Description:
heterotrimer; A: 392 residues; mainly alpha; two-stranded antiparallel sheet; B: 197 residues; alpha+beta; Alpha-Beta Plaits; three-stranded antiparallel β-sheet; 8 helices; 6 strands; 40% helix
Amino acid sequence: MTPVAVDQIFVTTKHLLMGYVPAFWQPLASAILSVVPVLVVFPALFAVTTVLERKGLGRIQNRLGPNRVGPFGFLQPAADGIKSLTKEDVVPRDADKVVHFLAPILLVLASFIVYAVLPIGRNMVIADLNSGLLFFFAVGSMVELAVFMAGWSSRSKYSLLGAMRAVAQMISYEIPLVLAAVVVIMAAGSLSLPAIAEMQSGYTWIWPHWYVLTPWGFAGFVLFMISATAESNRSPFDLPEGESEIIAGYYIEYSGFKFALFFLGEYLGMFATSGLAITLFLGGWSAPFSFLTWVPSYLWFFAKLLVLIAAFIWVRGTFPRLRMDQLMGFAWKFMLPMTLVNVVDAGLWHFMPSGVVRGVVCAAVIVIPFALFSRRAQEGKKLQIRTYRYAE
Amino acid sequence: MLGVGVLKGLVETARNFFGSYVSEERLTTLQYPEETSPRIEASRSFPFLVYDGSDWQQGMRCVSCQICEKECPPKCIFIEKSPDKKPDAVGKMQFYPAKFDIDISVCMSCQICVEVCPFDAIKMDVDYNLSATNRFSDLLLDKERLSKSNEYYHEIHPTEAASVDADLAAAREKAAPKPAAPATAAVQTAGTGGAAS
Amino acid sequence: MSLFFLITAAIAIGGTLAAMTRRNPIHCILSLALGLVGVAGVYLALGAQFVGFTQILVYVGAVAILATFALMMTQGHIVSALIEPRRAFSRSSVSGFVTAAGVFSVLGWAAQSYRPLTPSTQQAPAAGAKEVGVALMHTYVLPLEVIGVLLTAALIGAVVIALPSEEERS
């Protein structure tokens, strides 16, 4: 088989199967054939990621991590799944039963729906919407509602505090998230994710046309990933869960499989935002060098996804949790101004003639405000070595 | 500049991550049921009763003076004195405990029983494999399960056991000419211990 | 009328009806969010993707959330005191009915009296991102600027209110 045939094998298989379906059932069959693989692959990735994360965090802390269930502990998620399925489903007596029940469903639903617009390979997207990016953010914002529903309906102080933190954090970081993505819309001139991925699939000599290789693209990528970490409530922005302060935050009153659904929703959200970052900045499914284009596009997408997941785990293993005021200050005093500067920078890049001068000027437009902001952020925060009177 | 500390932290954790694969002293984890860490002499878990010789009923050092029972802060020791006397390891007639139970689900490993015992009969164990399926009967250790030989004591606390043995030998030597003396001394100690409590 | 339109319209009407009739304020907000999702679905049924998704992003993702946040910040008994009196013909409900009747009669009159002189042959204007952007930046640039100034003023006002007053600071 030629590389192109291998690349398009899923697309052609679907066309082949559709040939056997009567015309009336065609739309339904097409939807099922597109959706079911996504419903299988990403939860499977979730299962693998939980093991990899625990093993990775273990290694970062010089431990071994789970290694008992199955070869190298890779059947751990099966054990975890059986455990959470057989656990008792406890609903607090004073809880709002309907909302308490609907919250995890809405969360997982919203986390799954965003995959509809994510191109996971060449010609491999469930729905090629003209406003795909907007759809992504619109559905992503429903997650906030689900989190709020979970926290409020549990009738627990911890969960309400967790929900308030989560909602405040998600609203604050949604603005830099969208603004960081705006630069790509400006460059690509389209809101359709497959079109954006297509735009980056060209090569100059061996180097790809990824947006992350431009000054504004790099800054946008970093800002986007920071916002995405905050949006998916992961460490170091995991205040809503805050194990040590509010135990598990908004899902403290959930047990058994509902708890597992929250976990699933969180990880699916993380994969989806990582996938969006890949599509927007890392060239989607395109190969990193022109001589590697024979590798199928979907493999590149998942390779990049795994790299970003590894980065998430690495960050989680490194940083301590922020304080609430640091979190908010970081969002409004650093992230928001930097994304606005980045938008201006992308405009500058668009209107300047291409060449070395353009690169230098645009990099300077990013770096100088960054240096100024960071100086401002560190003003008056001279850390001194703490001295102990008795414990020395 | 902002972000330098972030990068330093990332480098540190990456060093840990890769270091745990190449360097043995980084990865200190022991695979517990298969490997166990060496016994630490200074550690202690729960009390046990020492006996001399090979027969645990015959050689039990405990004379059922009940000082430990009275001193135990959480009251986890239960002793029933025997009605009769029988010869101990050195052949002297002594009371012995008809019943000696320690509830290790109550015990707090304070070692006070060891410190008050005038006969060096109760000592601290180092064994930590004590999980049980029944939380009541399996954690209530009776006389038989509490009895461990002096050789075992030497094995887990060599230094301490050697000094204890030396003391005991000295006491026996001193007591050998007039065999009644150590017994009265022991009774006196027991009496003062009881009065102090 | 397609099935999709019927479903979304039912969701919109059901959600807003529930928002009016539920006693619990949080339930009202959640039902309102559902109704707004239904409205977005109606936009999608009309082929206006951009408007529909913006509707969800702005109204469900921001407005409903802010409403819940405001509710969490306020004390519960104030909200329940506002909701508690439910006489059928209180002054507020009468004025509400009058306002609603006025709005809907004008809307109905406008819809009834609208008779296209000639059957429209041209395509309905597309409401894509590009068209909306062009319209905002060319035809309606002045209203956009005015709204921007208004929002900035509101933002500064909020900051001024939130600032500690002189005696608090001293």
